[in-house]
Amino acid sequence: MLGVLLMLAAMSCDRAKPGTAAQPTAAKVDRVVSLSPAATDLLVAMGARSKLVAVSNYESLEAVKGLPRAGDYLNIDWEKLVSLRPQLMVLQIDEARLSDATRARAREMGIELLIVRLNNFTDVIIEAEKLGTAVGMADESRTLWQSIRQNMDDVRLSTAELPRIRTLVTLDDSGLFLAGRGTFINDILQAAGGVNVLSAERGDYVTLDEEAVRQLAPDAVIQLMPVNDMSLALAQSAKFRERFADMPAVKSGRVYVYADPRALTPASNLGAMAKWMGEQLHPDRDKPSNPSPSR
Predict the structure, then answer these.
(1) 12, 55, 128, 231 - which has most CB atoms within 10 Å?
(2) Which residues does the chain have with pLDDT short of 70?
(3) pTM, to two decimals
(4) 88-92 and 205-207: which strand pairing?
(5) What is the distance between the alpha carbons of residues 59 and 3, in angstroms, rounded to a whole number?
(6) Structural domains of the chain ordered from first start
(7) Burial class, 203, CB count within 10 angstroms (exposed 0-12 / middle 13-18 / buried 19+)
């Protein structure tokens, strides 16, 4: 979970130089290192698993379980990369924060760097296409991002005429680390028929104290837990409900737990997450507003 939170907080090819291998063309890229779990997910989803030779230290996908771990955007295991000989390395980081040393080392090793930005839903669509183009799978990536977008559109359409539910989205077991309005999580929430109780001024990802959270008084709480163990997630949720017993959402039993290792990963799972959120926030949306009395 620490790695996922670090990723949340993080958020043209050069000509070959003397002594540096020429950058590969997309069609020939078949040795890729992904140090972004979200990018890894997108690559696997578009069918590029066979091109991956290493991934980050924080991967949860079963499909890449046996691949070498090569660090993260802050700490790259360059010695391991020597033997793996990647042509392309994907990083999720603000490009302005990428050090000159990292750029130089990659250039020396003939590794092309691809920087992805995955802050909101639109970014996921754009970067999925960019990744597909970079690895020579443009058609496959187009199929993927069109499917992701269609799934989100379907959820958005299903909740369009329903009331907006004032919702708090928590991102850790304390219930104090929250998703704000400038995030992909907020995009999902809006599609699902919710409205974030955090104002835009609060920021994208924010930690509040207990009293500040209590004052938000949400009508529903969605707890995103990046874990495999639902029983553990429910135990953590029980502590939250006990701590905030006077919160409207807790009083009305409207605290919903989403337990999945990819819960905080902006990738191919967004449509499924939006569908789940919509079902929790509007459980009666498929029922007639004035059902006929039973006979």
Answers:
(1) 128
(2) 1-27, 285-295
(3) 0.86
(4) unpaired
(5) 9
(6) 2-149 (3.40.50.1980), 162-281 (3.40.50.1980)
(7) middle
